[in-house]
Amino acid sequence: MTAVALSARGERAPNTADIDPAVMQRLAEGPPEGPVPSLRCQGTTAPDLPEQELTPTGLTPRTQQLRDEMTAVFGDQPLGGFAPGGVSQGHGAESTHYSGRGVDVFFRPITEENRRDGWVLAQWLIAHADDLDIQYVIFDDKIWSAHNSRGHWQTYDVPAPANDILRHRDHVHVDVLRGEPQ
């Protein structure tokens, strides 16, 4: 997924000579039926992970690392769901945005090209879930969870009112594990 993302930006990508070209093409173009999740990966919930405090950026250090890694591969992207000092409204009651563990990456307007780009990011995120301590990825009515031992994408249970924003059709939501108090 890193090679696909870097190639799409015209950047130098890692050597993929040992990967079947058909696999690389499917990852780059998506499945023939249109932009949908095509990767599944198992994640872990890292039981010994320490809890982190919100920093002045509005993100925890773990979330900032995630942001930095995304930027290194995908370049600057329109982001939201956090603000310096943190956010205290605009999300559901249990949202990880309030604790600085959630980031939204926008793909607006909703077009087939933006959906495909969103799926490239979403699949890159789950491919790196263990390295980046990712807990959830939500996009386009689907959710992936590190808590699902089978690593499958599931249908996202959209809260009412089920609009494009709450369905995550115009943005990829990603959040990191909270960790445990030490």
UniProtKB/TrEMBL annotation:
Question: What domain of life is recorded for the organism?
Answer: Bacteria
Q: Where is the ARB-07466-like C-terminal domain?
A: 57-157
Record's protein name: ARB-07466-like C-terminal domain-containing protein
Q: Where is this region: Disordered?
A: 28-59
InterPro entries of this UniProt entry? ARB_07466-like_C
